[in-house]
User: Which sequence fits this backbone?
């Protein structure tokens, strides 16, 4: 249908865009491997002939880095799992049932996404203190769960709606209980959508340093990865090699997660918006 | 039975939906609604660190915080900058995202996968690292961007507009993939028979886009637009990191960073909260207007 | 119901709920950190100290002092944690807000003193401080930096003071001599820039308040003046304006281009000097390590920053850190004693040897200066009279609101002239003074 020269032009454009989009990431990784003299050189070159692990060594010399890494994974993992499950149930409720206050609830879920998180740190702090959760990983899991949920529910509605009602009817005719239908039929069908939604919860939780900075006060053993790397992001430190190595270390887990869910993500987002 | 199509209705919703909603509602009520309520409350009080740590009693100020805020010249200029900047970010993100989504449908698998992977990489990059890398790319001394563009010694963060432009690049870079992937998925979901029928009728590409695809994509566009507005209006990390907390003499402040500086740096929690409330109200208003514009007859949430 | 109507209803309901709740007096959380009044003699003392770039020598000295302390007190353990300086604001706030996770003893920057006191975080230790025999040797400026409204809130740990670093090789090549007046500083800076266009003459920063203030003080100006306990901004006085002009004139293609230097802070200027990109810089005794680590090791010297007239020394800002006991402590006596141990003469002497921190005791300082020629210009600067920020809680807010950096940046970048910018800054400062006084 599309004429050849046009397609070729489109493909060249796509490749060029891909290069531009990937360039910052390439430069980040490259600078992390460059020796100190080359990173802060006034003649920047897009390659290096003498790659070194020095910058990474500085990053990994940070005390307890492995522990912080695990903490981060634990927090992000818990938030992803919990928000997926809770959002699945909630999305089912608001799409497959009609009841009073349904629209009001939906609007609330939308409004909840508009709250500037940064402004909520103080009330959140007192809440965590009164619940005795300060200094624990729970004080990071719970707020992120709350912030991930509204968007997750909002996005998941489309997936749940896309499952034909005839399927549900059939299930009940076959004698399935509501619970059985929910977990054995609906859940697997909605799974790609859950993956897509998890991406958002994972990123926002993984990247957080505001809560980690404010809620993990005296128990340094419960710090998270961004806290350990924050040292390198201090604007006064001109250690660009260290900054880039730290950035690389922080980005890789998210990238891995993305590559793992990539296919599902694309098909998943398609489902989210199907009417 | 009158309506057999609505199985769920027939089975009598009763308490079941509330049961399903219970975990979500408990979490949100405790961890979101309550803090938001506190936020609103604080915005009516005199509440600085001294009150928080019990050094001085908390007093009720009514609307004084808001009055103080509205009388503050800087607030208005920051508000203006925020609205314009967010609008620019939303427009650019949507334009780039949609254009690339269409592009994706016109090309073969290999370039498509490459572009997709690059975009996912940008998406996956944490905001703090992304911002840092962009600053570094455009560094006046060590960055390759100036060399490529032939701008020796040009300092991007010095001028107000060039600093905002730099932040805009970084914001668009990390947020267009969401729009692109979603729109791409949406276009792919349009049944090919519909498009074929249209082209058999002799409709031009533009016409097919306008009268067939656009209406079908409108709900998706609505979703990504609302999300972009919400995210870009609240942009924080990029400004904070790239302009060093608001730029030279605060020229690059946006509301969220301004609120953070009021609340944290100066410990004026009540003013910070008032800014938060104002932001929330503006976002609500914008979304409301937008929803009204795109709402089709009978469309439901 | 229409979508918009629903939204509005929901909203107004929420707002209404908020307002009624306020009216019925449901206040947000506060915390009472006056402590439970107990003063336990056993248990664990928690200490927060700042994490230095190279923390090992500091930790070793602290460990030694702590060991001596625990040897004297049976059943007492000391838990020392090193916190990154850049997260101190959040942590200190958290500590004030949650006494359960708060330490008993903290290190804090002396410009934060008044703010922490107003926040109700620090304990008044006037009696204990005066009863301490070593305290009589504490120098006046250091004592002022732990004092608010006549009460003492801690013990000075070290002072930091800035002086003029210059490149000996560049000066030799160009036949320059160390400047003797501020005007000579500017002239020398322009000479260097003219002869060596790849160098900044004097590295200045728009956000480098403590590098700029000596110019203002030297011209007879000040940040603010106190009268009957009330502060008034003085940055718009003619003398202050002369000083501001002298500093901001240094931003320009002939010394340090505004497009680069307007956004720089103190560390940026030090870094530029250390990287060999500046002929001179205003840097602290504590910047020595950073400078030595750069490319100019062995090619620099330090003199006091001169004043307006030859022979004068421009008053420097007396920075530094203090140790303070938190008001929420349940081990007050022990915490005060540990504070004396860690901020005492012996520890300060060792900290100077290992870290280069200038002692706060006159006698100890003179003693160490005799052995270490590097600190001589800094000690002379201190003796000539160092200055401190206004000792009022309002200062914390003014500082955090970046009033002065904004003023310098506005002038340096040509957005406002000196008169307008200083008048605006004075206005903002006076606003804060009045508000915090009420």
Assistant:
């Amino acid at each position: 249908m599309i004429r050849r020269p046009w397609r070729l032009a489109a493909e060249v454009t796509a490749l060029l865009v891909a290069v531009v989009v990937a360039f910052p990431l390439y430069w980040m990784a490259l600078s992390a491997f460059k020796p100190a003299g080359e990173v802060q050189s006034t003649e920047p070159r897009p390659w290096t002939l003498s790659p070194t692990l020095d910058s990474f060594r500085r990053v990994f010399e940070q005390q307890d880095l492995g522990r912080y890494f695990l903490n981060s994974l634990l927090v992000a993992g818990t938030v992803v799992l919990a928000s997926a499950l809770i959002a699945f149930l909630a999305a089912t409720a608001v799409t497959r049932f009609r009841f009073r206050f349904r629209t009001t609830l939906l609007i609330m879920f939308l409004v909840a996404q508009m709250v500037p998180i940064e402004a909520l740190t103080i009330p959140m702090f007192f809440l965590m203190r009164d619940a005795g959760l300060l200094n624990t990983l729970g004080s990071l899991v719970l707020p992120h769960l709350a912030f991930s949920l509204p968007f997750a529910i909002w996005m998941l509605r489309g997936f749940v709606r896309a499952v034909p009602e005839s399927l549900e009817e059939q299930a009940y005719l076959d004698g399935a209980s509501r619970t059985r239908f929910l977990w054995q039929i609906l859940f697997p069908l909605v799974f790609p959508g859950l993956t897509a939604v998890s991406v958002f919860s994972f990123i926002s939780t993984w990247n957080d340093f505001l809560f980690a900075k404010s809620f993990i006060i005296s128990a340094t053993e419960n710090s998270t990865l961004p806290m350990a790397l924050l040292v390198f992001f201090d604007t006064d430190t001109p250690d660009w090699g260290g900054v880039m190595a730290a950035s690389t270390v922080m980005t890789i887990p998210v990238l891995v997660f993305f590559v793992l869910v990539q296919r599902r993500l694309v098909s998943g987002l398609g489902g989210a918006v199907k009417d | 039975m009158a309506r057999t199509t609505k199985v769920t209705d027939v089975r009598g919703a009763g308490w079941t939906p509330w049961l399903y909603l219970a975990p979500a509602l408990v979490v949100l009520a405790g961890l979101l609604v309550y803090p938001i309520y506190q936020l609103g409350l604080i915005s009516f009080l005199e509440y600085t660190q001294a009150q928080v740590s019990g050094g001085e009693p908390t007093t009720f100020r009514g609307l004084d915080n808001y009055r103080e805020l509205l009388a503050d010249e800087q607030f208005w200029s920051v508000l203006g900058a925020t609205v314009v900047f967010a609008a620019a970010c939303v427009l650019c993100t949507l334009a780039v995202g949609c254009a690339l989504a269409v592009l994706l449908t016109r090309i073969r698998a290999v370039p498509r996968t490459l572009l997709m992977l690059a975009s996912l990489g940008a998406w996956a990059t944490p905001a703090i690292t992304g911002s840092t890398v962009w600053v570094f790319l455009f560094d006046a001394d060590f960055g390759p961007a100036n060399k490529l563009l032939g701008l020796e010694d040009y300092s991007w963060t010095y001028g107000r507009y060039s600093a905002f432009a730099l932040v805009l690049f970084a914001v668009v870079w990390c947020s267009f993939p969401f729009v692109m992937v979603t729109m791409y998925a949406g276009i792919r979901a349009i049944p090919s028979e519909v498009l074929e029928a249209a082209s058999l009728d002799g409709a031009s590409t533009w016409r097919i886009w306008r009268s067939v695809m656009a209406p079908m994509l409108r709900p998706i566009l609505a979703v990504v637009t609302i999300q972009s507005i919400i995210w870009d209006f609240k942009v924080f990390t990029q400004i904070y990191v790239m302009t060093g907390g608001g730029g030279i003499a605060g020229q690059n402040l946006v509301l969220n960073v301004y609120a953070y500086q009021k609340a944290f740096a100066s410990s004026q929690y009540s003013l910070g909260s008032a800014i938060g409330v104002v932001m929330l109200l503006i976002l609500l208003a914008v979304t409301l207007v937008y929803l009204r514009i795109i709402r089709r007859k009978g469309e439901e949430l | 119901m229409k979508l918009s109507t629903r939204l509005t209803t929901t909203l107004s309901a929420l707002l209404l709920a908020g307002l009624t709740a306020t009216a019925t007096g449901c206040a947000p959380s506060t915390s009472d950190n006056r402590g439970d009044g107990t003063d336990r003699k056993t248990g664990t003392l928690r200490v927060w100290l700042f994490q230095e770039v190279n923390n090992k020598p500091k930790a070793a000295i602290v460990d030694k002092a702590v060991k001596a302390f625990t040897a004297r007190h049976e059943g007492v353990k000391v838990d020392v944690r090193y916190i990154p300086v850049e997260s101190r604001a959040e942590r200190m706030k958290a500590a004030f807000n949650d006494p359960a996770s708060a330490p008993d003893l903290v290190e804090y920057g002396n410009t934060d003193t008044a703010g922490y006191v107003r926040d109700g975080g620090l304990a008044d230790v006037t009696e204990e401080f005066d009863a301490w025999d070593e305290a009589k040797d504490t120098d006046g400026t250091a004592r002022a930096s732990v004092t608010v409204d006549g009460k003492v809130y801690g013990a000075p740990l070290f002072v930091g003071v800035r002086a003029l670093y210059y490149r000996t090789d560049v000066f030799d090549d160009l036949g320059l001599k160390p400047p003797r007046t501020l005007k000579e500083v500017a002239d020398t800076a322009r000479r260097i820039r003219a002869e060596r266009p790849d160098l900044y003459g004097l590295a200045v920063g728009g956000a480098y308040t403590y590098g700029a203030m000596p110019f203002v003080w030297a011209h007879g100006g000040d940040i603010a003046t106190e009268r009957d306990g009330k502060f008034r901004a003085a940055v718009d006085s003619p003398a202050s304006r002369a000083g501001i002009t002298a500093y901001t004139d240094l931003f320009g293609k002939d010394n340090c281009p505004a497009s680069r230097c307007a956004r720089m802070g103190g560390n940026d200027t030090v870094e530029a000097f250390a990287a060999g990109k500046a002929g001179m810089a205003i840097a602290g005794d504590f910047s020595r390590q950073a400078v030595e680590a750069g490319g100019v090791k062995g090619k620099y010297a330090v003199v006091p920053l001169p004043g307006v007239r030859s022979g004068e020394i421009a008053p420097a800002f007396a920075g530094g850190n203090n140790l303070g006991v938190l008001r929420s402590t349940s081990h007050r006596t022990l915490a005060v004693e540990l504070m004396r141990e860690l901020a005492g003469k012996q520890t300060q002497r060792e900290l100077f040897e290992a870290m280069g921190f200038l002692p706060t005791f006159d006698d100890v300082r003179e003693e160490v200066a005799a052995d270490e020629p590097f600190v001589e210009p800094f000690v002379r600067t201190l003796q000539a009279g160092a200055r401190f920020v206004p000792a009022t809680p309002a200062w914390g807010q003014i500082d955090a609101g970046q009033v002065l950096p904004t003023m310098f940046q506005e002038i340096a970048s040509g957005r406002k002239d000196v008169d307008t910018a200083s008048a605006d800054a004075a206005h903002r400062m006076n606003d804060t003074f009045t508000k915090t006084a009420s």
